[in-house]
């Protein structure tokens, strides 16, 4: 995947990622907005002609003209009588963003895990689906809907989960929620009402799970994760009767829950009359053509599976779904009712249209290719600059873990990288109660271009080297 940079002025660079087709205009507009807002392009500054910029970037002139027109309509740019396009004089810009003369680094490269490619939000498809939803909406669709969610979306989600995740559910088992975060909160509160006291969380794990469990009035207990996933013997040694897991791509280690561990977990659940809460947050993105089905499909009566569009479309939508055992679904829907009377109905209908139309699958196919290319950029950059690092967790999703050479101080490395405008995320913050483990960094690459990935690794390459004895 080629990444292209173009000199716009001696001080400004525009970065476009050609691997993602159909979004170059959106990328160009976003890059220009960022440059203007940050002050890298100053009020009154003249932009190159659309012909020149198009030639520099290898884009069509119409696409550049269209982007200029869009930004003019938004008030960022003005077209002057002589035909030149300039940054609008009325804009308020950051006064601190201009780097000191000679500074080589001006943009922060953030390897934050869990962030999808925000430039690739399928805006056109979403607009289309939303338009369809509004056009087809009945009077009833505009009123208060069923707290469990739109019957149509629940039908679509149940069949999607069967088709893509090998899950086993009917629409009566589905409760639509506002993303995974709300889904897990609703589930935990219902469990507490029904007598659960202790819930296991993965260690290392998603930092907010402990808070979620406590927030529901339950006691969290950490259970270690090894190269095969959660350690079931350790789970058995706790008093937990429920466990929250990320089987498809563990957060943060990236390991996929091994088949024998899945079987062991099912045995644990039977012995304990326990429940597994399956966080299915980024399962859409696997790279080796060996899709791993959901745990839910193996034991629908023992698993609450929670899906979300936060990684597949964008976190802003706050849309997710709970597939619950039949004995729990009504209580979860009731909790949803108490909580907010239901998720935005038009959003639900739009998501149903998006999935039914095949546009959702097409978007996922495009994104899988885009993330696969970014993943290659990361592995190649590390191979070039730090071949001794062990990189794991790359089978799925868009984060991986680089285990650091022994003796490297993880916190000091993260701080030193930050001084070079590279945000690395140390493994320590994912460890529950500060349990120990080898120094490592979690490298998210979803929202970075291949160029940024390579630049970021190059900027910190010397910090990643083994320390001389
Ligand atoms: C492992 C994991 N689960 C769940 C979520 C949250 O999902 P949502 O935005 O649907 O609440 C995140 C967000 O980053 C995550 O990393």
From TrEMBL:
Record CDD domains: AAT_like (cd00609), WHTH_GntR (cd07377)
Domain spans labelled HTH gntR-type: 22-90
Molecular function, one GO term: DNA binding
Pfam families, A to Z: Aminotran_1_2, GntR
Transferase keyword on record: yes
Key words of the record: Aminotransferase, DNA-binding, Pyridoxal phosphate, Transcription, Transcription regulation, Transferase
Gene3D superfamilies hit by this protein: Type I PLP-dependent aspartate aminotransferase-like (Major domain), Winged helix-like DNA-binding domain superfamily/Winged helix DNA-binding domain
PANTHER family: HTH-TYPE TRANSCRIPTIONAL REGULATORY PROTEIN GABR
Record-stated family: In the C-terminal section; belongs to the class-I pyridoxal-phosphate-dependent aminotransferase family.
Protein name from the UniProt record: GntR family transcriptional regulator / MocR family aminotransferase
